[in-house]
Specification:
The chain is an alpha/beta fold. It folds into two domains: 156 residues, Rossmann fold; 96 residues, N-(1-d-carboxylethyl)-l-norvaline Dehydrogenase, domain 2 (Orthogonal Bundle), CATH 1.10.1040. The protein has twelve helices and eight strands. Strands 3-2-1-4-5-6-7-8 form an eight-stranded mixed β-sheet, sandwiched between helices. The chain is elongated. The relative contact order is 0.08.
């Protein structure tokens, strides 16, 4: 594939992607609704596209990194037929239903569509710590993977375009769960005067130690067997969860983060699974 690439959307992430592509020796065409956001990239040799159609006409590889799918729809509203035989890599965060709709629309114009989920912050782009999830056209991925490698590690998940979005949101769910748990814990400790920095040497190694349980949980989830070799059963853990919720209220801390976990644990207990491992809560999450 040509090393001439167009990128639409120059927020913090879009700019980081464009810089990484320039660093890798690609010829960049850049577009943003606010034209001045391209100034620093133009100073590095990028070409400023004044319109979306100009950016699309200039390259066979089009990368989108916009605020949301409403912005994607608005940006591409008048240029659909121009996308025929081009590869479109959409790195905009979105829901599976949004991905399916845009994939069908662009493929209807004859484009090769690849959806992506960026698992990195802008400063991480181009480093070994960044990785990007991709799904959609296998031909599109094979044709563009050399250029996409500029961003970080590439993980192609399959031809169904929603795979990247679902896994992206799942990984973000794990991240926000971790952050939310830490913030709730710090607020609770703070209710008796412990500062965040005083609490950090306790919570950081504790969370690291608990992460070692994940491989065992993954095996239990895949096998559906949450009853084998139980180390700490749900009935006992449920007491601790309810104590956290109750203590939070009494200490003036909003327990909203922990209440859904308490509800799921109680649902699982009501089903007679109190002697199972806590990993069985996933079955309560899956139940309609």
């Amino acid at each position: 594939m040509s090393k001439t690439i167009s990128i639409l959307g120059l927020g913090a992430m879009g700019t980081a992607l464009a810089n990484a592509l320039i660093d890798a020796g690609n010829v960049m065409n850049v577009w943003n609704r606010t034209q001045t956001r391209a100034d620093a990239l133009v100073a590095r040799g990028a070409r400023r596209a004044k319109t979306v159609s100009e950016a699309i006409a200039a390259s066979d590889l089009i990368i989108l990194c916009l605020t949301d799918y409403a912005a994607v729809d608005a940006t591409l509203a008048d240029v659909g037929p121009m996308l025929a035989n081009k590869t479109v890599v959409n790195l905009t965060n979105g829901r599976p239903d949004e991905v399916r709709a845009i994939a069908a629309r662009l493929e209807g114009y004859g484009a090769r569509y690849l959806d992506g989920g960026i698992m990195a912050t802008p400063p991480m782009i181009g480093s070994p710590h960044a990785f990007i999830l991709y799904s959609g056209s296998a031909d599109a991925f094979e044709g563009a993977k050399e250029q996409l490698a500029a961003f970080g590690q590439s993980h192609y998940l399959g031809e169904d375009p929603i795979f990247a979005a679902v896994n992206d949101l799942a990984l973000l769910s794990a991240m926000y769960g971790l952050f939310g748990g830490y913030l709730h814990a710090t607020a609770l400790a703070g209710s008796v005067g412990v500062t965040a920095m005083q609490f950090l040497p306790l919570v950081e190694p504790w969370l690291a130690a608990m992460m070692t349980a994940l491989p065992d949980y993954a095996e239990r989830i895949d096998s559906g067997d949450h009853a084998r070799d139980v180390m700490s059963n749900l009935a006992m853990q449920s007491v601790a969860i309810t104590n956290i919720v109750t203590a939070s209220r009494s200490q003036g801390i909003d327990p909203a983060f922990m209440e859904p976990m308490e509800k799921l644990a109680q649902k699982r207990l009501a089903g007679g699974f109190g002697t199972d491992e806590i990993s069985g809560i996933i079955e309560a999450m899956r139940a309609k």
